[in-house]
Structures are given as C-alpha cells and as structure tokens.
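Help! Submission page says 'invalid entity' but I think these are all valid:
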Amino acid sequence: SQQGEEDPQALSIQEGENATMNCSYKTSINNLQWYRQNSGRGLVHLILIRSNEREKHSGRLRVTLDTSKKSSSLLITASRAADTASYFCATVYSGGGADGLTFGKGTHLIIQP
Amino acid sequence: DAGITQSPRHKVTETGTPVTLRCHQTENHRYMYWYRQDPGHGLRLIHYSYGVKDTDKGEVSDGYSVSRSKTEDFLLTLESATSSQTSVYFCAISERQDFGYTFGSGTRLTVV
C-alpha cells in the first residue's frame, strides 16, 4: 500500500503566489524526498530531508518535516508557469532493506498565468 | 534523462505475448528499480535490484520477472501480457538505497 499521501490532490493558483503541498506517511522513516513530474515525463528529484532534520531549502523550495506527526510540507515560493506539474513525496523506511522509496499519489499543481 | 535510458518508449502488444522492457544506465549505480504508474495509484514498485544477479520483489510483482546480468542493464519481462498491465513503466537508479533516485523517461505499454 502507499506510504505517503499528498494533500491536496490538486491545486490551482495564480503565478507569483506561493504553493503549499502536504504529505503524510505511516511508518518511521530514514528520509523523505520530493519529486516533480511534468506531463509525459519521468520524475525529477527535488529535495531530500533526513529524519533528524526539520527544515531544508533549495532555491524557491522549502521543505519541512515533522516526524512526531509523520508529515511533511513542500512550499514553492513565487510560483511560475513552469512549476505546473505533479509533485510526489516519497519515503525511505527506517527499517533498512534495499526496496527503496514508497511514493504517494501526488499533488497536481497548476499555475495560472 | 542523463545517465539512464529506457527502451522502447512506446509499445503496443497483444494479450498473451511476452514483452521485455530495458533499462540502461551509465552511472554505475548499484540500485535499480522498476515502477509502474497508473492513474489513482501513483507509482508502485514492481521489482528492484541491489547488484548484479541480486533482485527482489516489490509491491506489485505478480506477472513480472526481472534480470540483471550486468551493472548497467535491468530488464523487466511480462511473461504473458494482460490488459491490466497496460501502464507507464519507469526505471530508476540510485547510488544508495537512501539517496535520491534518477528516473528514466518511461515506457508507455498498451496491451490490447
């Protein structure tokens, strides 16, 4: 079953506004990652936050992690039309093993020009 | 995507026929993964590999097999394709299982 669940499933905002997406997960994790997928393309790794970190920044992206609530958020500031895509959170289970990432179903973000 | 290619990009096949999808990497990464992506389900892990000849099953492995005879190639085989296997298939690579993944561009498979 899916480990992560993103919220909302879809989000439409005006260009220049900030976009916030949330992710909840079920088990203890080693790290949590966010990916972007443009229509018809593969996923692109955006940012990784480890379980002992609370916040991480990369350019216009800000990710927070609350392990006590088993949740994460991705904030995209000053959105652009090119940010239109689906965004997925994915987790690495802390119990080890090589079976890697478990993905949520994604948030579809539309930036209106 | 740089360092990882999938082939073919598109394929239409008939029910009951075997199909093999190929993932090729030039990054010398140890870990390789096959996912399928379907509307309403997100990405689900089919099989993964943690080294040459070392593979294991993922969440939705029934009807699929894999092989990895070289570091750079990871093959996914549908033994006898069914309509439920119509999907977009993604390969991913990673240097370590807790690192970020690099994804291929995907193979859109239609089983008619």
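Support: the input was valid. A stray whitespace character was the problem, and the output above is from the cleaned input. Residues 5-112 of chain A form a domain with the Immunoglobulin-like fold (CATH 2.60.40.10).
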